[in-house]
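To the wet lab folks,

You asked to see what we're planning to order before we commit. Fair enough. Below is the target structure as tokens, and below that is the sequence we designed to fit it. If anything looks off to you, flag it before the synthesis order goes out.
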């Protein structure tokens, strides 16, 4: 799962709710650096090379090459199946080199209709970025999807994502982009080991963190056992306290009211309770390097689960699970369609097939079973029997739910069923600001620094003197322009509501 750590960081950046250059097909391993901008001659040469791929009935999908390239053999296999199944379109992928500003190039391709489909998440990979996804959509060259999604032929694509995912990716109350199925929200669990707890004990827990200490009293642990092995995340902690984290400030989930985090008493009480457990030696922060040993050797009593991965799935029978409260947050989606696309209807039909039909999705992501991969114990492996991980191709396309799992995936077992159980549970909380996107172009340098200042305060529970550290963090919030951010977001939210 180490690879997924920085992939998730990239998702958070790229989807704004945000890598590596691909040296090999399966295991990209080097982080891309921003190369010098090419000369106009170099850009023109590259453009001419791109445009040679246009052909009759060809749907062009544009993305960046920062994560590598989907094998041409996979694309050929997909096109052969499309033809065999009676479809007249074929797929070609245009890769914009990471040395070229992706925003600028994609803007041109959308405007001229020289791409049909585009992956928008790569916009955030640009060095000297000229804008973001919302700015590009406001240029007027991205096709609204509402008519297609509401029609009978678009129902399958609509059903490929959850309603709140569509709502989260709305821009000014319209859907322009298909949400990425790879986007992982904070849907973890508080897992109690059956060696130490009964169903009845866990059933009485009310999500007051102070109660964890009471539950642990009188339990007999060996020296190796960690009483509470805890993942830490400000967004999840805010949600547990009834708030949404927004770039350094909180918003009340039920009302959308913007708040100074250091005036949110519920959040303070949560961190204070964690600090009390920490001072008693009852809670330890997650250590990714030791996690597998701790979990597989049963060296924990309570585990705050961060990721629903293969490690977690293998331990489930030993655990009594309580799903953490979570709320969907606004993101700008992943895949869009040019308003000037030359193959608009074919592109929508192809996207629907890829997002909804496993046969087409697996051909594109993995290739041909028995030739390019094999399935062993439910997981995709290469022909040598080693785990095969093509997660990057899923990220590049946004296609995930119908793709065969690999050992390192999130939701590696019964993926759609697991996601359904998470989505339709009572743990999902309503976010009244879903679809609101922050415009930080109005932020000055001081206001832009607020996020990093507040993000670091999620570790206040590990401070020796919590009250003193809390007061210092509250002062740092003000010094970083916190009150200006509160006022600006209040203004932006009011403007957003007026457009409803």
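Sequence we intend to order:
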């Amino acid at each position: 799962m180490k690879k997924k750590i920085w992939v998730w960081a990239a998702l958070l950046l790229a989807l704004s709710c945000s890598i590596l250059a691909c040296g090999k097909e399966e295991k990209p391993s080097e982080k891309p650096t921003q190369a010098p901008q090419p000369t106009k001659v170099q850009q023109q040469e590259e453009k001419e090379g791109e445009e040679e791929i246009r052909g009759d009935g060809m749907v062009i999908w544009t993305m960046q090459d920062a994560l590598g390239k989907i094998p041409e053999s996979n694309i050929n296999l997909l096109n052969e199946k499309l033809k065999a199944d009676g479809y007249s379109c074929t797929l070609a992928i245009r890769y914009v080199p990471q040395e070229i500003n992706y925003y600028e190039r994609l803007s041109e391709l959308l405007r001229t209709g020289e791409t049909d489909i585009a992956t928008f998440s790569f916009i955030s990979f640009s060095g000297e970025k000229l804008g973001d996804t919302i700015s590009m959509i406001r240029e007027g060259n991205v096709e609204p999807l509402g008519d297609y999604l509401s029609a009978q032929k678009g129902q399958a694509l609509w059903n490929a994502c959850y309603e709140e995912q569509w709502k989260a990716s709305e821009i000014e109350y319209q859907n322009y982009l298909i949400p990425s199925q790879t986007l992982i929200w904070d849907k973890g669990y508080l897992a109690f080991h059956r060696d130490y707890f009964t169903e009845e004990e866990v059933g009485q827990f009310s999500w007051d963190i102070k109660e964890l200490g009471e539950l642990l009293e009188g339990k007999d642990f060996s020296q190796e056992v960690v009483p509470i092995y805890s993942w830490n995340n400000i967004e999840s902690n805010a949600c547990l306290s009834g708030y949404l984290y927004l770039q350094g400030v909180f918003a009340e989930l039920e009302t959308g009211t913007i708040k100074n985090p250091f005036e949110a008493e519920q959040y303070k009480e949560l961190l204070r309770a964690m600090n009390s457990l920490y001072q008693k030696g009852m809670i330890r922060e997650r250590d990714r390097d030791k996690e597998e040993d701790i979990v597989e050797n049963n060296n924990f009593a309570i585990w705050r689960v961060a990721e629903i991965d293969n490690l977690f799935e293998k331990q489930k029978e030993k655990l009594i699970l309580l799903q953490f409260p979570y709320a969907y947050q606004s993101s700008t989606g992943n895949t869009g369609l040019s308003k000037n696309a030359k193959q608009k209807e074919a592109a929508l039909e192809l996207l629907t097939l890829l997002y909804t039909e496993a046969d087409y999705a697996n051909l594109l992501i993995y290739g041909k079973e028995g030739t390019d991969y094999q399935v062993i114990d439910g997981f995709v492996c290469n022909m040598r029997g080693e785990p095969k991980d093509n997660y990057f191709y899923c990220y590049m396309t946004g296609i995930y739910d119908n793709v065969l799992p690999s050992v390192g995936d999130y939701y590696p077992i019964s993926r759609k069923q697991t996601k359904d159980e998470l989505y339709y549970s009572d743990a999902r909380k309503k976010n009244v600001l879903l679809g609101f996107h922050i415009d930080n172009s109005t932020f000055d340098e001081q206001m832009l620094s607020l996020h990093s200042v507040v993000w670091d305060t999620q570790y206040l529970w590990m401070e020796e003197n919590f009250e003193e550290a809390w007061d210092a963090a509250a002062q740092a919030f003000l010094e970083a322009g916190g009150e200006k951010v509160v006022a600006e977001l209040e203004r932006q939210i009011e403007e957003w509501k007026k457009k409803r």
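Structural context that might help your review: Confidence is low (pLDDT under 50) at residues 1-45. The first helix runs from residue 2 to 15.

Thanks,
Computational group
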